[in-house]
Design brief:
- This protein is mainly α.
- The protein has one domain.
- It is 70% helix and 2% strand.
- It has a two-stranded antiparallel ribbon with strand order 1-2.
- Helix 2 packs across helix 4 and helix 4 crosses helix 5.
- The two termini are 24 Å apart.
């Protein structure tokens, strides 16, 4: 599963609207935008940390003279050392972070739902929005399979092909 920065406002808005409509959280109408910004901050921090892990993994590969094929292994090891969820663990990690924000945000009046209810509803929304990007990710990887993952060329081509596919899917 992959979180894309362009989806952050939509995800934050959907989660806030769902939880408010179902009575799981109480938010004053004028504070809804602030709650969405709180959730967006969690999602943006996730993307920033994930990028940082990739950069650190690349540095390790270069320092230890390892093949770029080891990038995902090194990234996973770094993520585990930080208790950071990536891959299939990303949604669980994000949901836990969002629950913490909801419980401590000064913009949320009250949280009525239990953690399991919040987890289920937020996971559905995250999965829905991250699944499309996961499908696009797989298509991009198929198109650039001849390049070495983790290399600069791979990263540049990945972004270029991803943007092309997104434009095609919007039409």
């Amino acid at each position: 599963m992959r979180l894309v920065s362009g989806k952050i406002p939509v995800i934050a808005q959907e989660i806030t609207a769902t939880l408010c409509a179902d009575g799981d959280i109480e938010v004053l109408v004028e504070e809804k935008g602030e709650v969405e910004l709180d959730l967006s901050a969690v999602l943006k921090e996730y993307i920033r940390t994930e990028r940082e892990l990739v950069d650190q993994a690349r540095d390790i590969l270069a320092r230890e003279n390892l093949d770029f094929g080891s990038l995902s292994k090194v990234k996973r090891r770094l993520a585990e050392s930080r208790n950071f969820g990536i891959g299939e663990d990303a949604i669980e990690y994000l949901v836990q972070q969002i629950i913490e924000v909801l419980l401590h945000s000064r913009h949320v009046e009250e949280v009525y739902a239990d953690d399991n209810t919040l987890r289920r509803k937020m996971s559905e929304s995250l999965r829905k929005h991250m699944a499309l990007d996961n499908e696009l990710d797989q298509e991009v990887r198929r198109r650039i399979k001849n390049l070495q993952e983790g290399s600069t060329t791979w990263e540049v081509d990945y972004q270029r092909v991803m943007e092309e596919l997104r434009r095609t899917h919007r039409k």
